[in-house]
Amino acid sequence: MVSESSSVPSTPSSNPDFIDVERFFTREKAKPRALYPAESIPAISRHVYHLIHHAIRAALRNAFNRQAYVDAIIGLVTRRRVAFSMVEWDELKDLALACNPAIEDSLITSRRTVMRYISANYELYADHLAQSLQSAVSMIRISSDLWTSPHRHGMLAVCGQWVDKDYGLRKALLGLLECPKDHSGKSQAGLIADVLKRFGIRRVGYHTGDNATSNNTCLEALSEKLFNEREIIFDPVRRRIRCFGHIINLSLQAFLLARSKALQAALHATGDVAGAQSVETFSAASVRVHLLHQIFRWIKHWKRTMGDSKETEMLAE
């Protein structure tokens, strides 16, 4: 016989699968919401605006490629021959900030910084250029020119022309050096020799320069220096090419402006009546040619001043 106690069901808490129906169908009381006072709403708006503004500014700064910007500045200064002080122009800063207003502290604003970047860029590409020069299939032709800068510094430019291993014609500025002492041919020869040694150039071809007498001394000193220091044979007479543009310029000056004493000396050297008549004819003609040259210079200046009108164009023709 089963006892009474056995007929009493067990307590629900002892069974883990038991569901409390009353608790299940009873909705819990909602928690009270946090209410903000009305005066704190502007502060929240300012905080949200600050977060959005910071996110936008961070996105703009991340989109800025500084290396591309530096390369563009270097290319603009070197290829377009713009002054280093260009980076200090307010207009250039405004242009950059119009494209990205979040990069004001990343802009280059000092000419010394530009010079430092250009020097580093030159050293980087000089190594690649040296490899191309050493693998050239032709001799390396060089050309040099010396002039005085507006700041009274003597500058010597040394350029090279060659055919690379892919049989493509190449040319490059190998060096732009300052002559600290004087402009003599011997000083120029030392600078040119340093450039050739810097790039490992041994197969020196022809040299092109103007008709200055200092170039004669320069090539003679260069030939001696190359042979003594690197055992490179360079004929200073055979390997010299005079600048054709300079020759044309001197010829035009002698013909149009009668500035060449050598031409008049050549006419006087004939010593006969025909030579004397040639001198008189040349002297009379040179005065008229000089006057005509001055008239055309005045017309050109007047046309530039008054504007491109049809009357000035007809007069210039």
TrEMBL record:
GO terms for cellular component: nucleus. The keyword Nucleus applies. One of its GO terms (molecular function) is zinc ion binding. InterPro entries: RNaseH-like_sf, ZnF_BED_domain_contain. The keyword 4Fe-4S does not apply. It comes from the Eukaryota. Keywords: Metal-binding, Nucleus, Zinc, Zinc-finger. SUPFAM superfamilies: Ribonuclease H-like (SSF53098). PANTHER family: ZINC FINGER BED DOMAIN-CONTAINING PROTEIN 39 (PTHR46481:SF10), ZINC FINGER BED DOMAIN-CONTAINING PROTEIN 4 (PTHR46481). This is Uncharacterized protein. It comes from Fusarium poae. The lineage of its organism: Eukaryota, Fungi, Dikarya, Ascomycota, Pezizomycotina.
